[in-house]
Amino acid sequence: MPIDFRNTNTVWASVLAETLQRLGLTTAVICPGSRSAPLTIAFAQNKKIETIPILDERSASFFALGTAQKSSLPTALICTSGTAAANFYPAIIEARESRIPLLIFTADRPPELRDCHAGQAIDQVKIYGNYPNWQAELAIPSASIGMLDYLRQTIVYAWERSQFPTPGPVHLNIPFRDPLVPVPDIAVEVLETQFNPEDFFAGLEPIFAGESSTPPSPPLLRGGEESTMQQWQKCDRGIIIAGVAQPQFAEKYCSAIAQISQLLNWPVLAEGLSPVRNYAQLNPHLISTYDLILRNRELADKLTPEIAIQIGDLPTSKELRNWLGKTQPKRYIIDPSHHNFDPLHGKTIHLRTSVENLATILTLVPPLNKGGLGGVLTTATTNISPQIPPLNKGESTQVPPLSKGGLGGVLTSPSNKYLQLWHNTEIQVRQTIDQKISAINNIIEPKVSWLLSQILPPATPIFIANSMPVRDVEFFWKQNNLEIKPFFNRGANGIDGTLSTALGVAHRNQSSIMLTGDLTLLHDTNGFLIKNKFVGHLTIILINNNGGGIFEMLPVAKFDPPFEDFFATPQDINFAQLCATYGVEHEVIEDWEQFKQKLISLPNSGIRVLELQTDRRSDAKWRQDNLSKFAKDL
To answer: Model pTM?
Structure first.
């Protein structure tokens, strides 16, 4: 019997856990504490939920964030009363901004023990402000069928709100009176004779956001197909922007973008943190060097678009954002959530639908006869299927294979000079980058991302830390056919919890990679405490430049003092000794051949750190000297 009738708290907590398990919960992350004991015992006793104890609440919350990122299912997060709950806050902010489902259960003292110095009691009601999708305080546990009905349906609603209409965190504050341990209460045992589990849980089935949850086409597309679609079809100067994204079904996502690109004959400017760069064979119009291209002002002017279709968040690139802000194309933002994705405040129309849904709609719109003369306006191919291409490995995608230069069989119309200019520029800039970086023999930060995009095992999950790593990925990550899976915390763009999130992504996953700087890793070294409960493998590629390399790229670097002490903040840590403390494998990488050998195949278990020691000032100077030159002579 999954319901524990020893006392009121055990009934309450076990009904909560069982309800979640039946809805589809697979993982609960639990922090130690007394007030949360009923929840801890209930989840630990539910054999269908993996329960993971983690000491540090901040680390635990980011680990839960990582597991939810990987699965797109809510992860439960449990803590005791007091400041324990406050340590969840940064991860809850990230979950909100990154649209990741989390269920937060904070145990609390009952009302009579609040505001009276009872100890370990703070105001936990709505402690996370406006960041949760929904939040509530549950009633004091009560051993009656009616109150258990209330509990069950409240949990069902919490599960739904963590995923619909937009994924994010949900917080339930749960007060418990003593006894907190499962001592028997005869009065409660009587309730067991009244309880029919088959009837009580009847109708509970897994509820999760999937393909069926894709909203219907928005009115603009449904009712105004001709006006909207004709604008797109008539436009020879359109672009598609594939921003930061970590979709659950990456191949289908990339195929949908490729299909739209081919139907409209528009280039796809793909962010380094998008899976699109790692499915290059699907997209013959892929542009990966747009940040570097747009540093050439003359070229940037020639490439001014009339229409831009933005998929989700904008890319990291400041050059791209400034260019869009200056040129002000008519911009359509494609994302099913209710968020505002336009920090540029441009001429934008939000289409609240998924890119997969949009691709399906577009294939059903007949090609436009230009000028009514019967000349069909050019599309990328003449054999596009009316359905999204098959997505299973080994099946045809109806897209030409990748050819030299990262561009597939060129499907552009000779008349589309705009698309051809993007193509030609991409090929030349990519070749210049490759020649420049391949010739570098010393250990330098920009080469790390460039090399990783070529040598990792297929489908490797990689968690990319904020600050310089995400920018080097944006600049240098090559398009490839490796189907690498990028993960990141780009909602709030902070460095907190990075190691713990990466471990959450890697837990029970394919052997994974984390790319990080030294300060980001040091900010979350408590994440190493997860090691004994971690199942899988994580290789941490540590770029140790003894400080914050991102600040070397900013104007404040010219003002020293106080730059070095207060911005770069070098910590002078011996990472070999640090890793030894946690029993983590550590190795210093001396050359690129050693680096390749360590990554072309990955271990199956454990955590290891591969440290690359670099010079942050000289690397910053290399970027400053070279980024603006790659497209200079085109």
So the answer is: 0.90
